[in-house]
TrEMBL record:
The chain crosses the membrane at residues 29-49, 128-152, 158-178. Keywords: Membrane, Transmembrane, Transmembrane helix. It comes from the Archaea. The keyword Secreted does not apply. Residues 64-180 form the VTT domain. It comes from Halogranum gelatinilyticum. Pfam families: VTT_dom. This is SNARE associated Golgi protein.
C-alpha cells in the first residue's frame, strides 16, 4: 500500500492547525491516562507538531510509584511514542523520496531549508550514521522534526531508525533533567 501524495498534504496541513490545547493537556495530565496523553503527544511531535518534547517532563502524573520511577516511566513512554512517530515520518520520507513531491516543494521554498539541512544531515549521516541521528535528537530544546525527516529521506533501515530515535529521544529528556538539576544545585 502506498501513501501517495495525499498523506504529505495532510501532514503539512496538520502542522498549520493549532495544537496548543494538546500541550496544555500534557502539562495537566494526571494518573495513568496521562501516560497515554504523553505517548500521543510524543508520537505527534515526531512528525507533525511544532515545538519541543521536553514538556512531557512537567506532567503532574501521580502513579503511586515515587518520583524517580514516574520520571523514568515518562521518559520511556515518551521515547517510545516519539520512536513510533518517527517511524511513521520515516515511512512518509520513503514515500516522498520515491515520489519526489516533498523534495520539489522544499527546493522551491525561498529559505532553501532543504539544501542547508541536506548538507548538515548528510555530513552527520555519512560520518556517524544512526548514532549521529540519536546524537542530533539528544539536543534539548531543538525541534527535531526536520532531523527526523531529513534522515528518513537518506536512510532505509526502519529498525535502526526506530532504535536511534528511541535512544535520542530518551537521551534528550535525561540530558534536560540533568541540566535542570545541575542548574538548581548551583543555586
Amino acid at each position: 500500500m502506498t501513501l501517495g501524495l495525499a498523506l504529505p498534504d495532510l501532514v503539512l496541513a496538520a502542522g498549520a492547525v493549532e495544537f496548543s490545547w494538546l500541550e496544555r493537556l500534557v502539562e495537566t495530565a494526571t494518573g495513568w491516562v496521562g501516560l497515554v496523553i504523553i505517548w500521543v503527544y510524543s508520537f505527534l511531535i515526531a512528525f507533525a507538531l511544532p515545538g519541543v518534547s521536553e514538556v512531557v517532563l512537567i506532567a503532574p502524573l501521580d502513579l503511586g510509584l515515587g518520583d524517580t520511577a514516574t520520571t523514568a516511566l515518562i521518559i520511556l513512554v515518551s521515547a517510545f511514542g516519539k520512536a513510533a512517530g518517527s517511524v511513521f515520518a520515516f515511512h512518509i520520507g520513503q514515500e516522498a523520496k520515491d515520489s519526489g513531491w516533498l523534495t520539489k516543494k522544499l527546493r522551491q521554498s525561498r529559505f532553501d531549508i532543504l539544501e542547508w539541512s541536506e548538507r548538515q544531515t548528510v555530513k552527520i549521516a555519512q560520518k556517524w550514521g544512526y548514532v549521529g541521528l540519536a546524537a542530533a535528537l539528544c539536543v534539548p530544546g531543538f525541534p527535531d522534526t526536520l532531523s527526523i525527516y531529513a534522515f528518513s529521506v537518506l536512510e532505509e533501515d526502519y529498525v535502526k531508525f526506530a532504535i536511534a530515535t528511541f535512544v535520542g529521544s530518551a537521551g534528550r529528556l535525561v540530558l534536560w533533567l540533568a541540566g535542570g538539576r545541575a542548574i538548581l544545585a548551583f543555586f
